[in-house]
């Protein structure tokens, strides 16, 4: 018989991922898996059973190829002619936190469940973070 996890049975941990010197995409796939809860044996697709994830040193990630110059991120307000485009390199230099959240959001479900999972992601450009009391394990050493 298959065990189905209920929302009140989920045990969440706080996991730190250090992005310094690691490839950007590899970090994101690892983080999306942790947020979704697929690394746990009690994974249930319709329940948010993932962990809280803290990414530190976000501004020190490494990119392969010429993604920083070629890849574009678009946004639109809903009005005619209001489409704005920004290169990945410019977004990474000005606001690396936003870049990480946009990239991870694309890997999560496009539902209210995915929005709740994204709220458990905390990204910091430097090595300092205010969640020292919650942290239980460190990954990426």
Automatic annotation (TrEMBL):
A Pfam family reported for this protein in Swiss-Prot or TrEMBL: Ribosomal_L13
Family: Belongs to the universal ribosomal protein uL13 family.
Protein name: Large ribosomal subunit protein uL13
Record CDD domains: Ribosomal_L13 (cd00392)
Quaternary structure, from the entry: Part of the 50S ribosomal subunit.
HAMAP family with a match to the protein in the record: Ribosomal_uL13
Keywords: Ribonucleoprotein, Ribosomal protein
Top-level taxon in the UniProt lineage: Bacteria
Lineage of producing organism: Bacteria, Pseudomonadati, Campylobacterota, Epsilonproteobacteria, Campylobacterales
Gene3D superfamilies tied to this protein: Ribosomal protein L13
InterPro entries, per database record: Ribosomal_uL13 (IPR005822), Ribosomal_uL13_bac-type (IPR005823), Ribosomal_uL13_CS (IPR023563), Ribosomal_uL13_sf (IPR036899)
Gene Ontology terms: cellular component: ribosome
Protein role: This protein is one of the early assembly proteins of the 50S ribosomal subunit, although it is not seen to bind rRNA by itself. It is important during the early stages of 50S assembly.
